[in-house]
Specification:
The chain is mostly helical. It contains five helices and no strands. The longest helix is centred in the C-terminal third of the chain and has 23 residues.
Length: 106
Amino acid sequence: MPRGETSKYTDKQERKADHIAEGYEKKGVPDAEAERRAWATVNKDDGGGKAPGGSGRGKSTGHPAAHKGGKLGGKAAASRSAADRSASARKAAATRKRNAESHAHR
């Protein structure tokens, strides 16, 4: 089968690829590159085409690409000192307390 052939993918996989590509295009990634990344993500998630004759058929998926987001967060907080984080926490607690008081009288 030639590279770029998508006939072995299910409708759901094609919808998934379209949705992923749309997200990349919104971020300003060129159409062709967005499409390439989208299919790479579907392949990583599902292990290839799931339609009959596609090698990934019948195997469950752990959705590895969908779990990547959690690794990206927390770096900003981790690079701040404990005192900075503590001051932010105190300020947030004070704000929540103030808001709770103003909303309680309604």
